[in-house]
């Protein structure tokens, strides 16, 4: 398999998909995401996907909880560090 060809093919598919999304023919499944310490946003439709969004564009946090460890009954938000008890 030619890696470069595969890559070009994937890029073309992505471009086709993005033009469908932009013309409103397809719901955005957020194929290009960009994230930093503040959060994550979709680069196609601009929707925030986690935390405060890329570059901290929102004032509130869309929490994204991660476990503090397998033995811990708590989990914390990766972005605002809010701590909550794990769901049973
Ligand atoms: Zn999107
Ligand atoms: Zn949070």
Question: Would you kindly provide a written description of the structure presented here, covering whatever features stand out?
Answer:
This protein is α+β, with helices and mostly antiparallel strands. The protein has one domain (3-85). The protein is 23% helix and 24% strand. It is elongated, with a radius of gyration of 17 Å. The N and C termini lie far apart (47 Å). Residues 28, 30, 42, 44-45, 47 line the site of one zinc ion (ZN).
Distance between the termini: 47 Å
In spatial order, strands of the major sheet run 1-2-3
Ions, cofactors, ligands: which are bound? Answer: zinc ion
| Annotation field: number of helices | 1
Strand content: 15-25%
Count of strand segments: 6
Give Rg in angstroms: 17 Å
Any low-confidence stretches, pLDDT <50, length ≥5? none
Q: Provide mean pLDDT, rounded.
A: 95
- Helix fraction, binned, reads 10-25%
Layout: helices, strands, pairs:
Elements: H1 3-22, E1 33-35, E2 39-42, E3 48-51, E4 65-67, E5 74-77, E6 83-85
Antiparallel strand pairs: 1-2, 2-3, 4-5, 5-6
Task: Offer a quick outline of the entry.
The chain has 88 residues and is α+β, with helices and mostly antiparallel strands. Helices cover 23% and strands 24% of the residues.
């Amino acid at each position: 398999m030619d890696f470069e060809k595969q890559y070009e093919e994937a890029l073309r598919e992505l471009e086709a998909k993005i033009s469908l999304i932009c013309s409103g023919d397809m719901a955005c499944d957020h194929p290009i995401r960009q994230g930093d310490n503040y959060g994550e946003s979709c680069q196609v439709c601009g929707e925030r996907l986690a935390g405060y969004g890329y570059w901290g564009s929102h004032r509130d946090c869309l929490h994204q909880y991660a476990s503090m460890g397998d033995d811990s009954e708590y989990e914390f938000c990766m972005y605002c560090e809010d701590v909550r008890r794990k769901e049973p």
